[in-house]
Amino acid sequence: MAESALLALGIWTWFLVAAVLMILELAAPGAFMFWLGLGAAATGVVSLVFVNLTWQQELLVFAVLALASAAIGRSVMRRVAARSSDSPFLNRRAEAFVGREFVLADPIVHGGGRVRIDDTVWRVTGADAPAGTRVKVTRVDGAALVVVPV
C-alpha cells in the first residue's frame, strides 16, 4: 500500500525523501543525513531532467550523488573545523596555561602537588618544591600540568 503511494508520487518521491532526511538531521544532528538528503534532492532534479529513468537507474543515480555529496560535505566540514576560533582553548583548557606562572597551593612531594588557578585546583607534576613556590607551566600531561620552579 505504502509502496504504491510512493510510486504514485513519481519523481516527487525523491524530494519527499530529501525532506524526510533533512528533517531527521534536525531531530538527530550529526551532519550526515543532510548530505544524503542533498543527494536525494539532486536525484529528484536529475529525474526531472531525464524523465524516462527506471527505478533502478534512479537508485544508482541516488547512490552516486549521495556518496559525492557526503564526500563534499566531509571536505567542507573539515575546512570549517580547521578555521581558527575566537576560543582556541575551549575544550583544551589546560593548554591555555602553558607558559604562565602560578604559586603552588600544596607542596610538590614525590613529583605531585597542586596549584590554584582562579577558582580551580589543578594537579601538577614536577620537581619537589614547598608550598608557595612560584612555578611555570611547561606543558600538559593528560590532566596534570608539568611545572618547573621559577
UniProtKB/TrEMBL annotation:
Sorted alphabetically, the keyword list is: Hydrolase, Membrane, Protease, Transmembrane, Transmembrane helix
User: What are the recorded GO MF terms, alphabetically?
Assistant: peptidase activity
> Main subcellular localization, coarse class?
membrane
Residues crossing the lipid bilayer are 6-24, 31-53, 59-77
Which Pfam families does this entry report, sorted A to Z?
A: NfeD (PF01957)
- Protein's recorded name: Membrane protein implicated in regulation of membrane protease activity
Question: Is Hydrolase given among the entry's keywords?
Answer: yes
A Gene Ontology biological process noted in the UniProt record is: proteolysis
The answer to whether keyword Membrane applies is yes
Output the superkingdom of the source species. Answer: Bacteria
Task: Tell me how this protein sits in the membrane.
Answer: Multi-pass membrane protein
Residue span(s) of domain NfeD-like C-terminal = 94-149
List where this protein forms a coiled coil.
none
Annotated compartments: Membrane
Naturally occurring in which organism (per UniProt): Labrys wisconsinensis
